[in-house]
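User: I'm preparing a small set of examples for a lab meeting where we compare how different chains pack in three dimensions. I only have the primary sequence for this one, and I'd like the structure in token form so I can line it up with the others. Please keep the answer compact; I'll paste it straight into my notes.
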Amino acid sequence: MQCNVSGDDSFGMTVIGPNSQEIALNIPNGQIPSVEAACEFFNTAKAISPCFGTASNSLVVGETTKALNPSVVLVTDPPNVHGNGGLSGSQYFDYGMVIWVPGYDLTSPASTENLGYTVQAGCAMAASKISVCQAVLNFVNYWYTNPSTAGF
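Assistant: Understood. Below is the structure token output for the 152-residue chain.
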């Protein structure tokens, strides 16, 4: 297991299993990096700075996305494809989730007041282990989209 804090105080955790199979969670710290992580996937993020004017989703050939609701998108990258998934490019499928929790001030493109935050989770495992990935992503989805129930 690796836990890391980057220069901008973003943090993440990666669990590496046999044969370099991974599960990762990344939570950007601060408004700007968090919003940038949501630009590709959510119209409410595209409407504010720093995403303002961002083009529509730029999917890589083979990559798929599926919106579960207005705040949650699943991103799947096939093996050896470097896409938008945080663990893409490995020998395994990258099953990922991007959760966007908008802030309260989404009216001004130049606003920097409580823009919201993004949580990204990924799971790079053999296709036969998809149930493990589904369980991890379901947990992350529940935890971050039900903050009061989850204990926040």
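A couple of notes for your slides: Residues 2-147 form one domain. The chain is about 20% helix and 30% strand.

User: Perfect, thanks.
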